[in-house]
Amino acid sequence: MAFWKKSEDPWDIDPAKEQEKQDREPLENPLDALRDWNEERKARAAAKQAEWEAQPKEMCPWCGKEMERGCLAGSRGVYWFPGRYTASAAWWGPSVIEDSLRVDNEGGLSTYKTAWYCRSCKKMLFSMAAEISETLPPQTGEACAAEPERYAEDAGERDADR
Prior knowledge:
Layout: H1 15-23, H2 30-54, E1 68-73, E2 79-80, H3 87-92, E3 101-102, E4 106-107, E5 111-118, E6 123-125, H4 132-135, H5 141-161
Antiparallel strand pairs: 1-5, 2-3, 4-5, 5-6
């Protein structure tokens, strides 16, 4: 018989090795653990959704109709600051940082703020916690401009350590 089919010949089979294969317990299918994890994940998501829906509905203080619940989110944070929103404030950040409040204090990796929106009178409502300004420090235009320099310094320190 050809050399590549050597293991298929009956005289090449070692009975001791075959017995070891038969005596071993069958391996657990890794997909079963993955299925269990996915079921737990779905159950947690369903519980979180049920909790979200079970919370009381907010009534609009202006028109009295039911408000829709949603979230405010932004890439570098959601801030409230006094005064008018100008082009320079959009580009460089608000000029009065001391009086500004960071609004998005919920969440972990990506922050957001729960808000209620009234579709009939087009107004939005959200509650402010007292510790909002202490949870996340506000990013100023100067701090954002200094970020690339800080990254370059960190990279230089890593290169010097090598």
